[in-house]
Design brief:
alpha/beta; 7-stranded parallel β-sheet; 7 strands
């Protein structure tokens, strides 16, 4: 029997990229999955792929920047599957760029989705997670531990999420809820593809050469795949991962050099 049979999971930012891979993997492991994002077509496609493979999934189009959207998402999951066992807070993209050119609006937008969306959904789902000895996984990012000059917003948001993870892990010990975070490095997503194309253009090289340069200059093993992160989420939320609590796991090919 698949290890997550009978569980119900919410995965945010699951219309594409890492979130989509996580939703598909959890469904493969037997969980009934609620996907959310802002693109109806992409969500329908992801749900269709899960159902074709024999899994159970539903989706709801939401912008988690809107304050009441996380509560609506939690309510939708309970209405659909009568419970919430797993919450994967994955949604969130932050603007890169020269610090002096980043506006207050850029900063507010970066925190609105990734940070406040995570806080609000975790709070909305907590009663269910407590009742079901559930699990929260926060997809933060390597920039939260190794800030970069072009990533001031993202690094700040990710660092705040890592602090939130540690605090909620302590609450989770009291309430019987598992809370952990994953820090992905460079992963092959649409966002990475744009970065790769920009790098190739700047250096005057092809995409394959650009990727080799990025790996070499960052002193990492390779570019990650979305399935790498999905596999780790599956392990954490399954029976074998339950001893993990408050862990900040760097899955980044070695880009984090600090202790």
């Amino acid at each position: 029997m698949p290890k997550l049979t009978g569980k119900a999971a919410i995965v945010t930012g699951s219309s594409r990229g890492i979130g989509r891979a996580i939703a598909i993997r959890l469904a493969h492991e037997g969980a009934r999955v609620v996907l959310t994002g802002r693109d109806t077509t992409l969500l329908d496609s992801a749900v269709g792929d899960i159902e074709k493979a024999g899994g159970a999934a539903a989706s709801i189009v939401l912008d988690l920047r809107v304050p009441d959207a996380p509560q609506r998402l939690a309510d939708f999951a309970v209405d659909k599957y009568k419970r919430i066992d797993i919450v994967v807070n994955n949604a969130g993209a932050t603007k890169r760029g020269e610090f002096t050119l980043l506006t207050d609006e850029d900063w507010a937008d970066g925190f609105a989705l990734k940070f406040f969306g995570t806080i609000r959904l975790t709070r909305a789902a907590w009663p269910q997670l407590k009742a079901n000895s559930g699990s929260v996984v926060i997809i933060s990012g390597a920039g939260g531990r190794t800030p970069g000059a072009e990533f001031t917003i993202g690094g700040s948001v990710n660092a705040a999420l890592l602090s939130f993870t540690k605090a909620m892990a302590d609450v989770g010990i009291r309430d019987g809820v598992q809370v952990n975070a994953i820090n992905p490095g460079a992963v092959r997503t649409d966002r990475f593809q744009k970065r790769l194309e920009s790098f190739a253009k700047e250096r005057g090289v092809d995409l394959a050469s650009a990727e080799r340069h990025i790996v070499s200059e960052s002193r990492t093993t390779r570019i990650g795949e979305t399935d790498d992160i999905a596999g780790l989420v599956s392990f954490i939320t399954g029976p074998q991962g339950r001893f993990l609590q408050g862990a900040l796991i760097d899955m980044d090919g070695g880009s984090t050099k600090t202790i």
